[in-house]
Write a structure and sequence with these properties.
The structure holds 2 protein chains of 2 kinds. Chain A is mainly alpha-helical. In chain A, 69% of the residues lie in helices and 2% in strands. Chain B has 2 domains: 93 residues; 140 residues, no CATH class. Classes of the chains: A mainly alpha, B alpha+beta. At the A-B interface, α1, α2, β2, α3 and α4 of A face α1, α2, α3 and β2 of B.
Chain lengths: 163, 309
């Protein structure tokens, strides 16, 4: 049963369900808290002004994922945020007590965009390669190649290599 | 098909990528701050949209009024038609009616077009394709993290990562630098030709064509025909740059003219594919059917694609 996000209450429910996810995804691209918040806001503005129709929560999530990735990439391209190395801000992310995955997170954030998106979709969202191919409108073979490249790049980075 | 490949990638789960990314949390107060900004931005966007549509309406109204005034002016000032005033008056009325009808039709068309656009924009396909701007696969990575690639040695083709599955092998792992990020995606054959200096032709009636250039020297074209994926490699380089190497069987020459050879290739992991290799005008080609592990492929289909090139 498809649904729209129309009333304020519906939107707030929608927002509460997804804002952390969208923020994380945007932060991974923008590498800055302020930019990530700005992009997150713009993604949800699209929902609020667009009168979209979603089938279920999974559909909402897929839509948000692709929209967030596109928005961040466009922003990076047009604002040339890439010229500013904001990686240091990554340390602002508070790591919980116990295990520290900051090196993995930092390595993912340093991946080139085309690797970052397949890593996110495969390892974070848990989509299979065929689903990712469908979402990104690429041949499955290309997605597998990119995933393999990304994995190798990630390994290299974690072994102390530089891009 | 892709289960084994997906399993292969699962290796990285030990790195806890998901946990690492879930540590990214919005700061305190961010939820409320972003929500307030979203509502403000949405109101601004709607106000801007209304202002734009008002301006458009005003401009259209003015343009219509001006056009009608021009028609009437031309009717009044026609100098040579005094004797035929009744006739001309009738013509002016007709012109005005035609303009009126045309205006109505145009208005209906504009409304229909806009409604269609709005409907298209607001409808989310069941299949999760890009809802807004497309994810640009061909966008070159331009940030500072782009990898520097060693120049291609014309005698030693760079590694192209195989698409058959987990057949990258330890030697490629060791020689990681040689193929690491050494490719760029393109949208058209013309863009590819501008990089490589030669044009790769794909068969007619194929779909989903994707172009990739490795090391500015090896063209990889993926396309779909009759629900099968094919990959065509082309380069002036020597050596088997398709990287679909292994035990060759079922070898046959299918074209004496250019020495086109068809064979089945089975690698050390028992992944197999069919491959046709040939040369034309100093360009070496490899045409492959099959990207899936363990699947059976039809060599006749591959031969048909080759013949249609």
């Amino acid at each position: 049963m498809s649904h729209k996000v129309q009333s304020d209450a519906q939107f707030e429910e929608f927002y509460n369900r997804h804002y952390k996810y969208v923020y994380r995804l945007c932060y991974t691209y923008m590498k800055s808290e302020a930019e990530a918040e700005d992009c997150t806001e713009d993604v949800f503005v699209k929902v609020l002004t667009g009168d979209y129709e979603f089938e279920d929560e999974a559909h909402e999530r897929k839509w948000l994922t692709v929209t967030s990735i596109n928005l961040c990439k466009d922003r990076l391209k047009s604002w040339k945020v890439k010229e500013v190395d904001t990686l240091d801000e990554e340390h602002d992310v508070a790591a919980p007590e116990g295990e520290d995955f900051s090196d993995v997170r930092e390595a993912v954030m340093r991946l080139p965009d085309k690797h970052k998106e397949v890593i996110w979709l495969f390892y974070y969202d848990g989509y299979q390669t065929d689903e990712i191919a469908q979402m990104l409108d690429r041949p499955p073979s290309t997605v597998r190649n990119q995933l393999r490249d990304a994995r190798n790049t990630l390994k290299k980075l974690l072994e102390g290599g530089r891009l | 098909m892709s289960d084994r490949i997906n399993e292969e990638f699962d290796e990285l789960d030990e790195l806890n990528i998901k946990q690492a990314l879930e540590e990214i949390e919005p700061s305190e107060g961010a939820r409320e701050r972003m929500l307030a900004n979203i509502k403000r931005k949405a109101k601004e966007a709607e106000a801007l949209e209304e202002a734009k549509s008002d301006e458009t309406f005003k401009a259209e109204t003015e343009a219509n009024a001006e056009a009608e005034a021009n028609v009437e002016d031309s009717a009044v000032t026609e100098p040579e038609n005094i004797d035929n005033s009744d006739k001309n008056h009738g013509r002016v009325i007709k012109i005005n009616r035609v303009i009126g009808w045309a205006g109505s039709l145009a208005a209906v068309a504009v409304v229909a077009f806009l409604a269609g656009r709005i409907w298209q924009q607001n409808k989310i396909d069941v299949s999760p394709t890009e809802p807004e701007e497309s994810v640009n696969t061909s966008e070159p990575v331009e940030d500072e993290t782009i990898l520097q690639v060693d120049p291609v040695d014309s005698e030693t083709p760079p590694m192209v990562i195989g698409t058959m599955g987990g057949q990258t092998g330890s030697s490629q792992e060791d020689d990681f630098e040689s193929y690491y990020e050494d490719f760029e995606d393109y949208d058209t054959a013309e863009e590819v030709a501008a990089v490589t200096g030669f044009t790769v032709v794909t068969p007619e009636n194929v779909s989903d064509i994707y172009y990739r250039v490795w090391g500015e020297s090896i063209v990889e074209v993926s396309f779909n025909s009759d629900e099968e994926w094919y990959t065509l490699y082309a380069s002036t380089l020597k050596g088997d740059f398709s990287q679909r190497t292994g035990q060759e069987s079922e070898v046959e020459i299918i074209d004496e003219g250019n020495g086109a050879k068809l064979c089945k290739v089975t690698d050390e992991f028992d992944n197999c594919c069919y491959k046709i290799s040939w040369s034309e005008e100093d360009i070496n080609y490899y045409l492959i059917i099959g990207v899936d592990i363990g699947a059976e492929y039809d060599k006749q289909k591959l031969t048909n694609i080759y013949k249609s090139l």
